Amino acid sequence: MSSDVLVLNRSLYAIGTTSWQRAVSLLYLDRANVIDDEYRTYTFDDWRKLSSFVNTATAAGQKWVRAASYRILIPEVIALKFYDRIAISPIKFTRKNIYEHYGYRCCYCNKKLAPAMLNLDHVVPRSRGGKTSWTNIVTACVKCNLRKGNRTPKEAGMRMLIQPTEPKGQGHFVISIRTALKKHASWQKFVDNIYWNVELEEEK
Fold it and tell me: Could you read off the pLDDT of 157-175 as tens digits, one per residue?
């Protein structure tokens, strides 16, 4: 059985995820409470009692932990009782984060396109010493990418309508929005800054 649980700090800011085993352990040790969709909190005993009233047959999609004398629902969200800080992590240099940063627009013609219609372009080609970094990678539509080829924008006679920049600020934690939505809809309201967590695969 596998189920991730969203973890909040004491101020109800999302700071990451944990395994269901760790989540239940934190509840049992009174170091966390369960948080429901209405922001109500439950201790381990409260949650165990509530679980006893839930019909297993009608609780579609719910997962359970069974002990010798009771069963308990695996919570979707827990809040730590004694942790106030926000886990800070830099915005990862990933393909989808780059798409997000440039608003899914081609930096040469400014057209907004679906991800499948966008490429990543080295402003200064790698063959000319260009780095794979925030300040040298931009999004480009297929047409503009082919037109530019292995040249600089100046050499290709192309004007950049959106300049390469590095995102300012940091994310509270790195989590895939697809993962959040697929696992539990109840996560979304707690997630402040969401960034894609798909590692950038450099083109060979």
Answer: 999 999 999 887 555 444 4
Q: What is the CATH number of domain 95-156?
A: 1.10.30.50
pTM: 0.49
**Percent share of the chain, pLDDT over 90:** 44
Residue 14 β-bridge partners: 8
CA angle 16, 58, 179 (to 5 degrees): 25
Query: What's at 148, amino acid-wise?
Result: K
**Burial zone of 197 (CB within 10 Å; 0-12 exposed, 13-18 middle, 19+ buried):** middle
- In this structure, the strands spanning 64-66 and 71-73 are antiparallel
Task: Please enumerate, as own/partner, the contacts of 199-203 that have beta carbons within 8 Å and a separation of 24 or more.
Answer: 199/92, 199/94, 200/93, 200/94, 200/95, 200/98, 200/132, 201/95, 202/132, 203/120
Write the pLDDT tens digit of every residue in 35-74: 988 889 999 999 988 888 776 544 555 676 776 677 788 8
Mean pLDDT of 127-141: 95
- Cα distances from 54 to residues 11, 51, 103, in angstroms, run 28, 5, 44
Domain boundaries, the chain: 4-88+174-190, 95-156
192: left (phi over 0), alpha (psi -120 to 50) or beta: alpha
